[in-house]
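Tutorial, part two.
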Amino acid sequence: MLNESINAIIDSGMKYLIADLQKLIRQPSISAKNEGMNDCARLVAQLMENAGLQTELLTLDKQGDNKKKDIPPVVFGEVRSKAHPNSKTLLFYNHYDVQPVEPVELWKEDPFSGKVKGDRIYGRGSTDDKGELITRVKAVEFLLKKYGDLPCNIKFVVEGEEEIGSVHIRKYLLKYKHKFASDNVIWEFGYVDSSGRPIISLGMKGLLYVELVAKGPFRDVHSSLAVLIENPAWRLVQALSSLRSKNGKILIEDWYKEVQQFTREELELVSNEPFDEQEFREQYGQEKFVNNIRGNETKKALVGMPTCNIAGLISGYTGKGPKTILPSTALAKLDFRLVPDMDPKTQFNRLKTHLERNGFGDLIEIGFIHGERPYRTPIGNPMLTLVKDSAAEAFGTNPIISISSSGTGPMHSFATILSAPCVSVGSTYIFSRMHSPNEFARIDLLNKATKCMANIIERFGSVRK
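Running the prediction step on this input gives:
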């Protein structure tokens, strides 16, 4: 059980936690635009040093300069236990990059203001992932302030490309495998539902992200020529409609071939996981779900169903008023969520074959943008019990156990390269508007998550090798 004096230190230190989070929010770090990345990495390193961690900015190139490739550095932090230097090592994985702020006109406050209103702090990254990061850093700081030491070894790996697919994290893990060596990983976030229950997740879906381009005439032409010239937008729409049925089933041959069926234990967890369908629909303005699924099927879909999603679609004139043209190109960006044991490269080849077999091989150009494999930590892993007990104490309620998040991250790379099982837990209110205008973090949940992290560290330190 967490020492009451540590709880008191965390409560009294919240003003400093909020001040440091505001510093992070006010420093833009948009990886999609390569905006402010190095400045934010240095700020993260400084905040971690102030907390008592030894830090480094790691790069991939031999000269220690990633500017040529615009690859953001990884911020590495470490505290070795003085009393137990040979104890187990817990690694915190987080990221300092954020999503773009557009559409900026929908923000009620400056996206980089870090403005506090009531129990909320607003701004891009307030919850994803700067808010989560600061709870981990402050937990270490407050424990060091109390004891002058930690009961176990702690490491931080904070990357700058998570929001664009963690495109280089695998290379970082391979290059710095010895430096990052650890026994377990606390993942970069964890949801909290509308009833205040923390959701502990054991996995993440994978991802295949592609771009489809259909080309027509050399330039946009008068739409009267549509009797002679094939419109590339029609080609693209027809290709897209061949990928997915109206009920959400993906129509690409062998797409589900490697999909793992739920085990009996996993099905039991899914069935017991609470999920407020009505509130979910109200929050997102939906009268029903895809294929009108209900009850247990909604929960099974979130954690274990592959998806085919159109993330972006553009062609021709989209401004005000009419403009009668036949566009020269049409473009679509697609993301496919994958589940164990689907492989993004295998799925990409199946997609290419599908387009060729359906007559689009010479009409549609397909580009592989990014791929990430799915991963799930086994239900029986002892780290789950430790995290569950820590969260229950900090949040004052029994946590929800989920076999997988519906989102994607590089969990597979961490688990396989470092041989370190991963568990997600954190402070992210489930309706905190991540990736949307007016993103916010709840201060009460930041407080509870900080206590949870300190609790995890103390419990983890009691488990000797």
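The chain has 14 helices and 21 strands. In part three we will examine how such features are distributed along the chain.
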